[in-house]
């Protein structure tokens, strides 16, 4: 029986293998990462955050501005008054340059730079998170296609089985050894299998199209996933126990960055209630053209000191500070709750993998029993000890057992991919 099934499987593979476009999991992930618009946008957000960092650094530099003013009157602003003023004044110009350097701004400049740097780190973490998400979805789509391929193999094997039974039934009917009703039973079961075969083919086309659109790989109906589900072996757990270390987990890192960000926002809100000190230098040139009055150059230096009083005592500054302290406490609470939820999730996904290994073990046992049961019923039928209905029931049970094993293996690899995602172990996968 096993030799017969193996020969059928080998024939179908050789028949279809000539023009196949074989694709590996690693190639799929590399293609998806290169194609993903989410990752392209992530890179753009990083570049945007870098411009914010550069802008924040510029606050350490002096602020320089220039002003210019020119007036021309249709009548004299000032009438001539010889001999002091030979001509009337009908124009006036002013040009000035001012430079200001902040000596102390309550910590706003330093805090603003820290916030900009923090936002850049957040953008980089989010991009890494997007990479992990792309890898996870690619693996899920890939193993779904592998599962469909295995289901198709099962369909082909069982189609060959039923065709062989149908041929035998036709010969026996022609010899008058069976009733026509037995032949019809085989035809009905074969027809149902062909319907399932058509549905599976259509489902594979849709899955291939979805896979191609996600990875950017050109759609090809002859595309075949390289991996197969080796039902003779049993996969193992990725670790002896759940890895609950969250240091590399992107969601955990974002939680810590949020707490740090709220602390900086609190410091920034407090800076509004602190004094600010700045020094500056200005130079201006004033004069009038063709009026007989010369221009005047006036350099000057200055110091400004601003001390907010009402804002920090009873104004909006005090309320803003209180609100920001509340936001900081909310972020702390979310951090504690979030890290607990992340650890619970990791443990749950690890046990999901363990449960799936148990499912594989039971499914393999069931397939072995279904295979033996089919062989026994076929032999009994040839010996006249079993009915065709019993053979067909055994064939249906064998087909279902084969399908269940393939799904169990595929689900294991999908759940392993999810576990790698939540434990931040996908970076070494491509």
Question: Helicity level, as a percent range?
Answer: 55-70%
Assigned CATH class of the largest domain: Mainly Alpha
Total tally of structural domains: 2
Q: Cα-atom Rg, whole angstroms?
A: 39 Å
Task: Please write the string of helix (H) and strand (E) elements.
Answer: HEHHEEHHEHEEHHH
Instruction: Summarize the biggest pleated sheet.
Output: 4 strands, antiparallel
Strand content: 5-15%
Looking at how many chains there are and whether they match, the oligomeric state comes to single chain
CATH topology of the largest domain: Outer membrane efflux proteins (OEP)
> Would you tell me the structural class of the helices and strands?
alpha+beta
Arithmetic mean of pLDDT:
88
Return residue spans where pLDDT drops below 50 for at least 5 consecutive residues.
1-17
CATH superfamily heading of the largest domain: Outer membrane efflux proteins (OEP)
Described by the principal axes of the CA atoms, the overall outline is elongated
Number of helices: 9
* Strand order across the largest sheet: 2-3-5-6
Number of strands: 6
**CATH-defined architecture of the largest domain:** Up-down Bundle
Q: Distance N terminus to C terminus?
A: 40 Å
């Amino acid at each position: 029986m096993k030799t017969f099934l193996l020969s059928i499987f080998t024939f179908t593979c050789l028949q279809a293998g000539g023009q196949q476009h074989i694709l590996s999991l690693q190639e799929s992930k590399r293609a998806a990462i290169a194609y993903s618009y989410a990752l392209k946008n992530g890179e753009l957000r990083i570049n945007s955050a870098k411009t914010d960092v550069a802008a924040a650094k510029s606050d350490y530099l002096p602020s320089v501005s220039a002003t210019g003013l020119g007036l021309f009157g249709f009548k004299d602003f000032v009438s001539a008054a010889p001999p002091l003023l030979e001509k009337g004044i009908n124009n006036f110009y002013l040009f000035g340059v001012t430079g200001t350097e902040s000596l102390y701004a309550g910590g706003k400049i330093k805090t603003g730079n820290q916030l900009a740097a923090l936002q850049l780190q957040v953008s980089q973490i989010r991009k890494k998170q997007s990479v992990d998400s792309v890898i996870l979805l690619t693996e899920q789509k890939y193993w779904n296609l592998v599962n469909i391929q295995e289901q198709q193999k099962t369909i082909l094997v069982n189609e060959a089985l039923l065709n062989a039974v149908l041929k035998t039934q036709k010969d026996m009917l022609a010899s008058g050894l069976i009733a026509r009703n037995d032949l019809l039973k085989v035809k009905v079961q074969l027809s149902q299998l062909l319907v399932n075969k058509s549905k599976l083919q259509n489902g594979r086309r849709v899955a291939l199209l979805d896979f191609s659109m996600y990875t950017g790989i050109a759609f090809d109906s002859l595309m075949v996933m390289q991996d197969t589900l080796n039902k003779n072996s049993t996969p193992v757990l990725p670790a002896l126990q759940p890895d609950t270390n969250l240091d590399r987990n992107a969601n955990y890192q974002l939680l810590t960055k949020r707490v740090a960000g709220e602390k900086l926002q609190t410091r920034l809100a407090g800076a509004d209630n602190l004094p600010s000190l700045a020094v500056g230098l200005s130079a201006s040139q004033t004069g009038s053209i063709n009026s007989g009055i010369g221009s005047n150059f006036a350099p000057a230096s200055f110091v400004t000191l601003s001390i907010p009083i009402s804002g920090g005592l009873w104004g909006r500054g005090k309320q803003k500070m209180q609100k920001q302290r509340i936001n900081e406490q909310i972020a702390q609470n979310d951090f504690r709750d979030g890290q607990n939820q992340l650890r619970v999730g990791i443990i749950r996904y690890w046990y999901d993998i363990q449960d799936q290994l148990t499912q594989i073990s039971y499914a393999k046992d069931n397939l072995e029993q279904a295979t033996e049961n089919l062989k026994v019923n076929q032999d009994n039928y040839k010996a006249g000890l079993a009915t065709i209905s019993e053979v067909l029931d055994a064939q249906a049970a064998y087909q279902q057992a084969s399908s269940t094993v393939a799904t169990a293996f595929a689900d294991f690899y999908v759940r392993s991919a999810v576990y790698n995602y939540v434990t931040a172990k996908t970076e070494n996968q491509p």
